[in-house]
Amino acid sequence: MRFLDQPDVLAPFVAGNRSRAFGAGLDPFAYERVTGTLRSLYDWPAAFRAEGDRLLSAAEEHAGRGRAVSAGAALRGAARWLHFSTLLPHPDRQATARAARAADRAMHRALALTEPSAERVEGASFAGWLRRPAGADASGGTADVAPAGGAVEGSAVAVRGGRGAAGEPVPVVVVVPGLDSAKEEFHAVADALLARGVAVCSVDGPGQGVMAAVRAPRADFPHVLGEVLDAVAARPGVDVSRAGVLGLSLGGYYASVSAAYEPRLRAAVAVSGPYRLDWDGLPLFVRDTLAGRCGSVAAAREFAGRVDLTEAAPRIDRPLLVVEGGTDAIPGVTRGAALAAAAPDATLLTVPHGDHLLGNCRPDWLPRTADWLADRLGASAVATAPRRPR
């Protein structure tokens, strides 16, 4: 029996993805409205695409009136909803691929309007966006800019790369999504790093986002990350000798195994990442999703068998932060505490009430995680104290 055909699966799936949706920036009231119309999980993709299309129409209206900021916000929202329409192992893989491409286009348009310095980076096994901190141009220069979210009267933020000298390139973090996620999902993670003076390259790797239709997942992810770093190294203003990686869910495995074998990485973060997978113990949703993205059940089983950090963990000789939610328990998944115990320079951050991806407790881990990475990569984002008006 397919996951989608199980009885009484709709309500648990909606509830189980609620904090993930909120953490990704979907409006909570819209999530309740959209999911409240569903009669079965087969309706999920079309309902979420319709909300994405509604925001695309709003973006067109804003753009037509010359309101670039509003248009950009609507496009970012559309990208989120279109991505969330692809979460299920739906049998219509072509519709899923079209939605992933639409999400990618929406994010492209959003960045073109609100962050024109963002650059497309892509290779044979990945596609993504390279974004630099505000005030750091493509040559690594700096400027004083207003804080994100609105300026406090009389205040400014000086965003500086490296040791703060003007013209120096900034460090970079590659953000890697998980099994059914994509680069359009983790806006808050990227924004937290950018605010701390770190460039961000958010990517879809094999089996993810726009790459899911053309590349199956790869357990040997260091090869993929190496391609990403090669591409980023060719862009001005970014220092790949101060590179980090942050992976979420299955991306946590990708980040960890890359930290063991990619020498250019200075630090790594695994959020809700697995230490090992046991195919026979995995939930049907995970097995169906893997089978769809790997191309067959046999290929999915082989891939799951290779997701095992037993040999790689002792080789991680650079700082590693393992972030876990205390309530995150997925059958067939050995959690990251085993990774933290095996890696020589690992720190374990557990949020007791956190769930998978910790979307229900973002303030409890994301600021600390972004600060941890920025410190280890030598970034500097200094906010001046507000000046009293005279």
TrEMBL record:
Domain of life, per lineage: Bacteria
Broad EC category: hydrolase
GO molecular function list: hydrolase activity
The EC number(s) this enzyme carries: 3.7.1.19
Stated family: Belongs to the AB hydrolase superfamily.
Protein name: 2,6-dihydropseudooxynicotine hydrolase
Keywords, sorted A to Z: Hydrolase
SUPFAM superfamilies: alpha/beta-Hydrolases
Pfam family, one: FrsA-like
